[in-house]
Amino acid sequence: MIIFFNRRACQFKPESPPKYSGAAGVDKSTSKVGQLRLRPHEIDGRVTAENEVVMDQLTFLGTGTSTGVPMIGCSCSVCRSPNAKDKRMRSSVWIQAGGMSVVIDTSTDFRTQALAVGMTALDAVFFTHYHADHIHGIDDLRSFNFIHNRAIECYGGADALERIRGMFGYIFDGRPDTGGGKPRLELNAITAPVTVGGLTVEPIPVMHGELEVYGYRVNKTAYVTDCSRIPEPSLRRLEGLDCLILGALGIKSHPTHFTLEQALAAISTLAPKRAYLTHLNHNIGHDEVSANLPPNVFLAYDGLAIGI
Ligand SMILES: [Zn+2]
Ligand SMILES: [Zn+2]
Ligand SMILES: [Zn+2]
Fold first, then answer.
1. Which CATH number describes the domain made up of 19-190+201-307?
2. What pTM does this model have?
């Protein structure tokens, strides 16, 4: 991790209006970050002007389950909650580390999310799996084609990429673009760690019901979203973490997702220094559930940025 501290950063006021439309903030539980905010357009090549801040960081672009929260047509207390931390777009994270800017998944809300956090560069995309909530923002990668004037490298499991090829035939069928525009993407199937610039990302297979999907590990941080079982070999690859981000759908049992209780049990087994829960549904009220979590476990929320 590289940090350049400076005067302007110290002048950042916690009460300043967040850039993010929801509940933006920086996790106070990590002293590495404090109240500092990364300026993504200055990440490439670690070019920093005086008084700028650069650090390795992960930002939660969305922390909701496939419907998002609030859910269309629902009037439950969480869907009607005025708390910004109860507003959840579809799950995805943005990692700025090793001089690279990468996202894990392009959620249905990707465009809104990228605008909200001021994302102006993107080097690569890692897909966890092919479910709609994790990939339906894929067309908006076009903007990064325009910015960088090149194809965007995308990584994932072979099966997930094959499904994505089929679901987005207009992108991958090789037919000429007749004016509608399509993103330029390079799909790379991986089974082992891949290094993008100065960033090494390790795929970790986990089970999402009967479907094998990928979690990803970057240094001592791992992101494991849709998951109902972690196989033994993957458990070993998730040891020694500073930070585990784990999906916890809600309270009621579900065939393809950990419940809150099951996620807490997995966290207890893996014993990361701290953990964040994501992919949350409308049974999880932020304040109510947060009040009863173990001291090193937190509910993630949209716009939250943590040092990694
Ligand atoms: Zn999902
Ligand atoms: Zn609801
Ligand atoms: Zn899924």
1. 3.60.15.10
2. 0.84
